[in-house]
Amino acid sequence: MMRMRFLGVLVAVGAMLLSNGCATVDDDRIPSSPVRIAFQTQSQWEAYGVSGALDSRIFIKQDRIPDNFPYTSLTYTGFGGVLLVGDIHGNPVAYDLACPVERSATVRITVDHEANNAYCPKCGSVYDIYTNYGHPLSGKAAHDGYGLQRYIVGGGMQGEYMTISR
């Protein structure tokens, strides 16, 4: 009985992978730009990072957003800026703010906290930022298969608490 149940689960997972195999998302349309945001301590992460599920923060060094973040000469915020979110499990995930359809550093996605997604105010594309890692939900991005550029969020090096990097 247990073997049959395992086999059924295995077949279901295989079918799911095959059905999704043809649909690909291009999440590398944004021009390559350096990304490095370092949170030196846990208290700095608590002040400027994300506190849990569905929380979000924006980092744009040239615009000093957030205005009191301790940016340094070693801080880089990507092509259009960085959107840091807590996914539905509270895990931190980061994206470039530039819309992959528009490919302009000044056309940035906006978080819609009521719909729990992000959208581009210019092309109207909508992206799933909390559960599906920047995949397009609608608009030209969904039609063309353009997802948000993702960045790495992980434990810091050289004594840093957490970093966002490319």
Which characteristics define this entry?
Rieske Iron-sulfur Protein; about 170 residues; alpha+beta; four-stranded antiparallel β-sheet; globular; about 20% helix
Write the layout of secondary structure elements.
Elements: H1 2-20, E1 35-39, H2 42-48, E2 56-59, E3 76-77, E4 82-86, E5 92-96, E6 110-112, E7 117-119, E8 126-128, E9 135-138, H3 140-144, E10 150-155, E11 162-165
Antiparallel strand pairs: 1-3, 1-11, 2-4, 4-5, 5-10, 6-7, 7-8, 8-9, 10-11
Characterize the structure shown.
There is one protein chain. By secondary structure, the chain is an alpha+beta fold. The chain has one domain: Rieske Iron-sulfur Protein. The chain is built from three helices and eleven strands. It has a seven-stranded antiparallel β-sheet with strand order 2-4-5-10-11-1-3. A four-stranded antiparallel β-sheet has the order 6-7-8-9. A hairpin with a 5-residue loop joins strand 4 and strand 5. 29% of the residues are buried. Residues 1-22 have low confidence and may be disordered.
Query: With helices defined by DSSP (H or I, 4 residues minimum), what is the helix count?
Result: 3
Low-pLDDT segments, ≥5 res: 1-22
Could you tell me the strand content as a percent range? 25-35%
Number of strand elements? 11
Summed over residues and divided by their number, the pLDDT gives a mean of 89
Shape type: globular
Name given to the CATH architecture: 3-layer Sandwich
What is the CATH T-level topology? Rieske Iron-sulfur Protein
- Strand arrangement across the biggest beta sheet: 2-4-5-10-11-1-3
Q: How big is the Rg? A: 18 Å
Alpha-beta classification: alpha+beta
Distance between the first and last residues' Cα: 47 Å
Helix amount:
10-25%
Number of domains: 1
H/E element order: HEHEEEEEEEEHEE
CATH class equals Mainly Beta
Largest sheet: 7 strands, antiparallel
CATH superfamily: Rieske [2Fe-2S] iron-sulphur domain
